[in-house]
Records
---
Amino acid sequence: MSAETTGVRPQLAVVVAGHVDHGKSTLVGRLLVETGNVPESKLEEIQQICNRQGRPLEYAYLLDALKDEQAQGITIERTRCFLRAPERDYLILDAPGHVEFIRNMVTGASRADAALLVIDAVEGVQENSRRHGFLLSMIGVSQIAVCVNKMDAVGYDPKVFETIRDRYSTFLRSIGVSPAGFIPVSAREGGNVVKPCRHMPWHGGPTVMEMMHGFHLPAERSLQPFRMPVQDVYRHAVDGIDHRMVVGRIESGNVRPGDRVVFLPSGKTATVRSLERFQQPPLRVANAGDSIGVTLDEQLYVVRGEIMSHPGKAAPQVGSRLQADVLWLGRSPLKLGQTCLLKLGNTEIPARIESILRSLDPATLETSEGGTAVERHQVAKCVIRLRRPIAFDVYDVVPETGRFVLVDNYVIAGGGIIRAILPEAVLSDTWQSHLTL
C-alpha cells in the first residue's frame, strides 16, 4: 500500500557521514534553518551560547546537544532530526566521524535509504572518507552523494573541487559504488545547500537540497516477503480454554486473517485467525512496521526468536553454517575459533568463527587472504557456525532479517550481513562438546 493511497507523506531516511570535523553537523544545521525547520527561539538559544563562547553562530550546535560534543566540536552520538519539505519528509541521521565512534556511525546508517558523504575541501579525502564510503556500500546504501564542504576556505577554487572529485570517484568505483553526484558546498555560509552559491557559478549541478529531492524512495517493505520475528507468546484462558497470542513487529511484507503461516526454524504451520492491537479493533491487514498480536486457528507452541512467514519459496532459510561479511569493532582482535553471541532479530545464539576467508581494511582497501584474526575496524568474509539452526535471510533478499550483531563479553563488538547459507560440516570434537553444554 503506497503513501499516496494511505494519505501518509513519504519519508526518506538520509545519513550524513564523513571524516571527523569535515562539517557534517554544520551542513545538517544549515539545511534545517534554511528550510524553516528550526524554531526562532531555538536559533536564538544557540546564538546566545555562541556569543558566550566568543564564536560566530555554530549551526552544528543545533545537532550536537551533548555538552562534550559542543566542547570538543565532534559528534559522538547519532543524532536524528526531521526535515519537512514540500516534496516529502526526511529523517536526517547525523553520524559521528571520529574513528572511535564507527559503531555509532554504522548503527545510524543501517536504516538509511540514502547518504550524504561530506569531505573537507582543505583536508581532502581522509581515512574515514574512504572507510565510511565502504561501510555505506557494505550495508546496502546505494544512493550516495558527495558534498565537498568548506569551499569558502579555499577561495571557491574549482580546481580543488575537481581534484577531490576525481580522486574520490576513483576510490568509489574501486568498491563498486556509482555516486549520485558531487556538490561543492560552503555549509557555514550556506552556499549550494538550499540555494545556489553566487561564488561558484562554475557549478551547474544541483544544490544539496535538490540532490536529496532526487533520491528515490525505497521499495516499500510491505512489498517484500512477510517476516515477523517472534518477540513473545502471551497465554490467557477464555472459558477455561487456553489461548495463545504470538506478538512481534513485522519487519517486511504483510499478513491478513486467513493467511497460512509457518514458524521457522521449528517448521510449525497454522492459519491466522485475527490480527490484534491493544485496545483497538482487529486489523484486516498488518504491514511492515506494525507491532501486532496474532491469534491462530491452532494452539501452537512457538518460542521467542522464531520467524513467522508465509510458507513456500518466500520463506526464510534455515541453517547453522553461514558465510557473512563481518565488521569487527572490538578492542581485541576477533580470532579464528572464537565464540561470540550472535543476535539476529529476537534470536540470540552462540556462534563460532569457523574460518576467516579474507579480511580488508576499509580505509586503505588492503586485503589479506585467510589469516587467524580480524583486527579492529576491519571487514572480513567469515564462515560462522551456530550452536543450532536458526531462520534468516540472505541480506540481498530481505535485509531486515539478513543482518546481525556479535556480542563479546556482554558488549556489542561487531556486526555483519549474511551472504550465503553453507552446507553442514563435520564438527570438531571441541566444538561438538561445546554444543552439548
---
Amino acid sequence: MIAIHVATSVAVDLGVNFEREIREQPDAWERIARSDAASRLAAVLEGEIVLVGSGSSLFAAQLGAIALRRRGVTAHAVAATEAQGDAKAYQDRAVVAISQSGRSSDVLAALDALRPRCTVALTNTAESPLGARADLTIDIGAGPERAIPATKSVSCTIAILLSAASLVGGERTRGADALIGTARTVRTWLVDSGVNDVMRAAADIAIRHDVMVLGTDYGAPIARETALKFKEATYLHAEGFEAGEFRHGSAAMVDGSSVVIGIMDRDAIEIVGQPLREARKTGALRYVVGTLTVDEIPRLGPIVDDPYNTLAWLVTVQLLALYVARARGIDSDRPRGLTKAIVAE
C-alpha cells in the first residue's frame, strides 16, 4: 500500500462550521415538520415532473424522483449542467429547481433550456434570482450554511421532497410526527457513544486510497452524495454506485487499499449485501451505514424508522467525512478550489 501522510493528532478546530451544521440538522427538520412546505409542494406536483439541480441538489432531485415514481408519478431528475442537451424531451413540464443558494448559473441556464410550464424553486435563499423566476418559491428553512460542503440544505430538501411525495400518494407515513421522531432519535445519537464508532472508522478510512459507496433505490443517490462529501471534505477518491451495477465491472477496482461502504436497509440486504460480501477477499475495509448489517460488518449510524431513514444515513456519512478530513489534517469548511455556489462571471 502506498504510504500517505495522516495527521498524528486530530485538530478539532478543522471543519468547525461543517460540524456545527451537521449537528443543527435535527432542529431544522423539526421546523420543516411544523411548516407547510411539503403540502405547498405537493399541491403543484401534477402531470409529468422534472427535478433539476447540480451537485448535492442533483442527488436530492434523484431521490425525490424515486419517491414520486414509487407513487405512480412520472418524474425525472436532470443534471442542470446537462439540461441543454436533454431539453427537447422535458420542455413544457412542471420543473422543481433545487438550489441551496438560488444563484447557481447552471440551474438558471437549465430553466432557460427547459422552458417550464410551471417552475417551483426549492431553495435555502428565497430572495434570490431563482426565487424571482419561480411561480412558487419554497424556502427549505435550513438556515445559514458557512461550510462549503452542504449539509442542512441537502437533508431539509430531501425531507420536504419525501413528505410531499407521500402526500401526493395519499399517504401519511411521512407526516410531521414521523419527521419529529427521526429528528429526536438522531439528535440523541449525535451526543451518544455511537458517534465514537464513526470516529474510529474515520481513523482507519483516512489511510486508505479509494472509497466506494454502494446503494440501491433511495440508497443510490445517498451513495453518490456520500462520495461527493468525501471528495469535497477529505480529497480521497470516492465514487457512488448502484450496488447491482457495481458488480458489472467496477468491482475489479477493489483491493486492500479500498474502503467499501454499503447504504443498508431491509430492501437493500440482497442487492447491497452481495458486493459487500464479495469484497471481503480483497482485504478492503468494509462498513455499513443504515439499520442492518451483513456478516458482522461494522454498522455505523442511528437506527430510525423507514420513512426518514435517508436523513439518518446523511448525518452519518457527513460526520464520517468530517472526521476523515480531520484525521488527514484538512479543513473541510474550505475545500480547495471550491466555492459555495458556482456563478458565471
---
Amino acid sequence: MLNKISNIFIVGIKGVGMANLAQILKGMAKNVSGSDVKEEFITDKWLKKNNIFVTIGFDAHNLPKQTDLVIYSAAHGGGKNAQVHEAKKRGIKVLHQAAYIAELMRGFKTKIAVAGSHGKTTTTALMAYSLIRLNAEPTYLVGSSDFNGYPGGGFGEGKYFVFEADEYAVDPPQDKTVKFRFWQPDIILCPNVDFDHPDVYNDERQVKEEFTEFFKKASKVYLCKDDPISLEIIKLEEIKNYQTFGYDPTSDLAIKNVKFDENGSGFELHSPDENKDYGLFNIALYGEKSVSNAAGAILALIDLGFDPEKIKKAIQGFTGPKRRFEKKAYENDTYLFDDYAHHPSEIEATIKAAKNRFRNRKIIVLFQSHTYSRTAVFLDEFIAKLSLADLSLVGPVFPSAREDPKQFNVNSLDFEKKAKEKNISNIKSFSSVADLLIVLGKNLKKGDVVFTMGAGDVYKLEADIIDLIRKL
C-alpha cells in the first residue's frame, strides 16, 4: 500500500507521535502535510526544519484536494474530527496512527517494539541512538520530540524498525481497542508492566492480559526480572521465547556494581548461564531504573549480533529524550529540570534518581497531574511518591479533551487535604499556577534542585522559575 501513496495528510500533526511519523514519511520522499491548533508545540521546530506544512484548525475545507491518505489519532476528536469525516466523504483512505504504523513496519526485516508502562520513551530512544551509532541506519519512532540532537522520528536505509509501542487505546472512549492488537513485531523489549490509563483499562488484570497477548506475537521478548507483573506473565508459561535482565543475579543479563557520579551511571553486566562478564558500561543517565532499562537494550543488541565493546561506545553519550530528567537551567548554584513523569511509579523513579545524583541538596517538585481519571484512581499513590521529595507543590489538574471534569469528584486541592490526613506535611496544592509560584518563591533557596513534572504543560513555567532562581 505504501508504494502507491504519495500525498499524506496528518490530523494533529504537532503531537510528538504524529510529528515523528511525518518526519519518517518525509524521509521516504512522501508529500506530507497536516493540521493542528495554533498553540506552539515542542515539535514545531522539527516540522519547520523538514518543510512540513501545517494548517491551523480542523476545517474540512482545509483538507488538500490531492490527498491519498489521512492519518488520525485519538486527539482532536479522533474519528469524529471534521477532516477525518471529510476524507471519508471524498473516498480518501483513512487510517488510525496505530494501523498506519502496522503498514509501515511491514517494510522492514527486523521490527523492534519497545513496550512498557514506564521508561519506554527513554529505552526506545536509547535503542535508536545505539543503532545509529553502530552504523545500522535504523528507522525509528520515539515518543519524544528529540534526543541527543536527533529528531524523535527518522528514516534510515537499514533493516531495523524501532518504535515505541504505546499500550493506550485507538480512540477512547468510543473505541478502546488497544494499539498492541495492530502490531506484529519480531522483538519486544519491555522494562515493566503496570496499571495505567484507567480511562482504557479496568484493572491490572486487563493490563496483564493485553501485554501477554502482545508478547505472544513476537519471536523474542526481553523482560525485566525485577518487575513483579512481568514475572507473573512469565510464570503463566504462555511466553516461550524470552530472556531476562535486571538486578536479580539469576537474570540472563544481570546488573552488578552500580555507581552514580556527576557524569551519570556506571554498571557491570554478567551472564550467569555463560559465566561471562561483559565489563563496565556507562550512560549519562541517573537512577536504578535507567540502568535497568539500559541493560535490557544492551541484551537485545547483543542478541542481534552487535559486539559488546562497540555497544559500550555506542551508548556512552546518551543523555535521554526531551522532558526526561532534562536540565533546563543552572544558575546561582540552583538547578531546574523538567520530567514527563505522570504515574506514581515514574515520580518515584525520578525523585530517587535525583537523590542519587544530588545527595546533599533539597529536591522541590512542581507537579501537574494529567487527566482526572488518573488523578482519581492514583491519588493516594501520587501522595506517597510525591512525599519522597523535600517539597512537592501541586498545581491544577491538566485535563483531557476526552474527559468531562464534572464526572470526577477530584481536584488539585485534594492532594494537600489527603496528605494532611496521612500526616504528610511536605505536599502543598493550589487551584492556580500563580499561587504555586508565589509559594515556590518563598521556599526556594540557593543550591536547591527544582523539577517541573507531569504530562501536561507544567514545563511552560520554565521562564518564571528561572526568574525566581536569578533573584536568589
---
Amino acid sequence: MLVHNGTPNSRHLYGPHLRDAADRGLRLICYDRPGYGGSSPRPGRSVADCADDVRAICAELGIDRLVTWGISGGGPHALACAALLPDLVTAAASVGSMAPLNGDGLDYFAGMSQENVDEISLYLTDEAAVRALVDEAYEGRKSASSDDLARAMASVLPPVDAAVLTGEFAEFMASAQQDGLSQGSQGWWDDYCFINRWGFDVADISIPVLVMHGRQDMFVPFGHGEWLAARIPGAEARLLDDDGHLTVYVTRAPEVNAWLSDRL
C-alpha cells in the first residue's frame, strides 16, 4: 500500500497507521515527491508526473500489484495513479483531497478559509508573489516545533482539527515537514500543481475508488469531496459530517486501510 502524503511533507508515515497496516498484513510505503526530503526537484511538474515515479519505485521494489491512498495534496497524486496505472494499481482512496480548479460545476472556493482563498487567487494572477509567500512560509516551517505548527495552521483549522493537532501526531507532523523541507522550498512550490496542473481526467478512472472527506474541512472544502465522488466513475463516498481535514487522516486511516486491503 503506497501513501501519498500531504503538502508540504515527506516520505515519513505516522506510527499508528504503520501499526494498523502491519496488523492487517499490509506493507505500507511512501516516498518523497520531487523537491521534498531526499528527492531531486522537478520544476514545472504536473500531478500526472507522479505515475512514472510510482511505476519506477514499484519496479525497483519488485511490486507488481498495489493499492494507494493520498491525503490532502497527496490526494490528486493517488487519483493520478488510479487513472494512469490501472495495470499496477487495483484500488485507490482520496482522503481530504482537493479537486481540480477547472472542475466542471465546482465552486472551488466555497467553504475555503479566507487565507487559502487569497493565496490561490493570487497564484492565478501573480505566481511570483505567491512564490515569495511560499519562501517566507518555508523559513517559518523548516524548523518549526509542534507548537509552532499548530499556531501556523490555526487560521485554517476548525475546532475538530485543532483538537487532534497535539501530542504524538503534532510531533510527527512537525518532524515530517522538517525533513520534507530539508533542501528548500522547491518541492512545496511545485506541489501547487494540485491547483491547475493535473494532466489527467478523473472520469478516466476505471478501478475502485473511495472518496473520504469531512464536512468541517476548512482547508480543502467539503464541496471538493462531493465533486470527486460525483465525477469518479463508481466511486464509493464517505462524506463525514463531524470530521475536518486532519481528523480524516488521524482517525480514519484504519478504515481506509481496511477498504483498500479488501481490494488488493
